[in-house]
């Protein structure tokens, strides 16, 4: 300031003052001072470069570009200007231009850790994992104390399923910045990936302590606490999440939010914010208009990361096999690992073409889908882990559909339809979806008629169950169990002497068991009446239903695949129907096996019905007999009829696309479905 008092046209003093003002958050003042510096000394390249930074902060992007161009015209080798120009391109979504600018910065200054880190980000966004890792490693080598490159490198490792290296990388970064919220969040994610949920919970908590508005950490912390049945303070956390949604937090995970006490409108808002973030990261990648091929066979593409031993695969494989090849060509676009399982081999044979897209960027995947002439692209993941939503955002197909993997709206203008049924997606609630609703007859959920039905019963003793007494089971993921539902279960156990509650756990079983047994003590129920089984292969897991008497569903997120598994094995499911898609799946499945009487409208009705069924053996036996004798005729398990109905829906979508009349519609049940197509005898597996 003294320099300016002596000479108000001291360009260097003006420049430094402008930089200080910018760093202090006084952006408008910084703009005025830096503009004056460039007027006083138009040949000062650094001043033009920093003026561009201020203009970029103010989102005056064209002015910023001109300032960077002016700096580079004065000093073509000014690495900072190239790096900042790259940042501008990245902010505007021009990824190719950003990559070129960062590379020029590195050419001029190989020791620029900032440019190396930024280039790593760009390369990671186009799935160039090895090259991205190399530049992040260079950035770390140049400035080891900077935390951000550690987080980016760990994210690259996680995308390559190199979890051990990701953990090592994050811990190295935390030595320099132990309180860095993003590193703590990434550490939590990596720890949850390897199943150490208590440690993940602690990492997410630390991230949230440092940044109370870290939406992703808050979402993840709630999800992990629900997985562990750690309900201490959970109402407060859930309330904070709802307030964050009101304020437009973009990183609230839509899938985990479905398990929160929330309305359809809140769930839609959450999905919209999440999708907007994906589109912002995509930037100006062109969503080219897809052109319909000539009339004839329709090409259906199924996009998923679940083509391995996964519930979605077990549900849908029969659909892929039963598609009528006289009318449809069916292509898989897979970003899932090959786990070598029987279901993976069956899936590969079920498609006409099986395309592995794991090493492809969203843009190259979209280009491949266009080149394949896909008419309808069906996203089987929605807003769930490893979803390829960015591919859908590029609009590679004329008609795009949300189905099966995510029970809610994706909040995206690039998705045309959501496939549901009259119960999960009533047309009166169409305002809760950005997609047009398509209602299938019966249930929206496809099932595989070839699903195993293991007859051998290992016996209760072998499963850790009492030899007599009623066994209430719930084999849902533990994050679906709420304190309110568990309290209801305790009331049921107290009313049915000798009964037990049988759950399945997947991770950190000892902690889950301890937390639930503590809750049982609070309800004056003997903790020994809880049995928790660990993960099992499919057939062993299905055998468990022989030893169970009644499946108790959860709310607000019902059983999905586990409910259809129970019904397939002849175990009655008792559910409560709520106000959202995921809270009505149980009702949809029960109606499709002709058991609407097991759908309750309140927890009190549910509690009373569970007690009645448990104390009336003849009534419970009649339900089991109904399920066992009707398996081959229930709409829920008629894969062939389901396939004909969804094919009818696909044809209607294309008719409406050609006519420009997209809207909600329902498919009527057909009593005379088309004959099943010949089984496939060949399949191509491509990279």
Textual characterization of the structure:
There is one protein chain. This protein is an alpha/beta fold. Among the domains are: 305-449 and 641-686, Rossmann fold, CATH 3.40.50; 461-637, Glycogen Phosphorylase B (Rossmann fold, 3-Layer(aba) Sandwich). 50% of the residues lie in helices and 9% in strands. The protein contains 29 helices and 15 strands. The strands form two sheets. A nine-stranded parallel beta sheet has the order 14-7-6-5-4-1-2-3-15, with helices on one face. The longest helix is centred in the C-terminal third of the chain and has 21 residues, at 639-659. The relative contact order is 0.07.
Please give the radius of gyration in angstroms. 28 Å
| CATH level 3 topology of the domain at 305-449 and 641-686 | Rossmann fold
Which of globular, elongated, flat, extended, rod-shaped describes the shape? globular
Strand order of the largest sheet: 14-7-6-5-4-1-2-3-15
Q: Give the percentage of residues in beta strands.
A: 5-15%
Could you tell me how far the N terminus lies from the C terminus, measured between alpha carbons in angstroms? Answer: 62 Å
Structural class: alpha/beta
Low-confidence segments: 1-7, 671-684
Main beta-sheet annotation? 9 strands, parallel
* Top CATH class of the domain at 305-449 and 641-686: Alpha Beta
Q: Provide a count of the helices.
A: 29
Helix content: 40-55%
Overall pLDDT confidence: 93
- Count all strands and give the number: 15
